[in-house]
C-alpha cells in the first residue's frame, strides 16, 4: 500500500525549515526619480550591464516590469548606434 507524499519535504528527505523573509528590492531608477530611460544617457545604462555586456535581470536590479522594458529598449538602441558595446573587450 502506498502512503501519501509529504509535500513539505524537499527531495533529499530533509525539511527546509522556516524560509527567511526576502529583502525588499529597491529600484535605482525609482530612487533617482527617472521617469523615462533615455538611450543617450550611457552613464545610467552602463550600471545595468554586467561585465560581459549582458543586461542585468529584474530580480537583480530591482526594477519593475515597465522600467525593465524601457531599460532594455534603451540599451538595445544605444548598442545599435554604437554608444554602448555589444560585448566587453575582455577575452579569456
Characterise the protein shown here.
This protein has 92 residues and is an all-alpha fold. Helices cover 33% and strands 0% of the residues. It has 4 helices and no strands. It has helices at residues 28-32, 42-46, 58-61, 65-80. The radius of gyration is 20 Å and the shape is elongated. The mean pLDDT is 84.
Which characteristics define this entry?
92 residues, mainly alpha, 4 helices, 0% strand
Sheet-strand content, in percent, reads: under 5%
Secondary structure tally, helices: 4
Uncertain stretches? none
Q: Could you tell me the mean pLDDT? A: 84
Chart the SSEs and their pairings.
Elements (H helix, E strand, L loop, with lengths): L27 H5 L9 H5 L11 H4 L3 H16 L12
Amino acid at each position: 500500500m502506498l502512503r501519501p507524499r509529504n509535500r513539505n519535504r524537499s527531495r533529499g528527505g530533509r525539511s527546509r525549515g522556516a524560509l527567511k523573509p526576502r529583502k525588499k528590492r529597491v529600484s535605482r531608477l525609482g530612487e533617482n526619480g527617472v521617469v523615462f530611460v533615455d538611450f543617450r544617457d550611457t552613464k545610467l545604462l552602463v550600471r545595468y550591464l554586467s561585465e560581459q555586456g549582458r543586461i542585468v535581470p529584474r530580480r537583480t536590479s530591482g526594477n519593475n516590469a515597465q522600467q525593465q522594458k524601457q531599460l532594455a529598449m534603451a540599451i538595445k538602441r544605444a548598442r545599435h548606434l554604437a554608444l554602448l558595446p555589444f560585448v566587453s573587450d575582455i577575452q579569456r
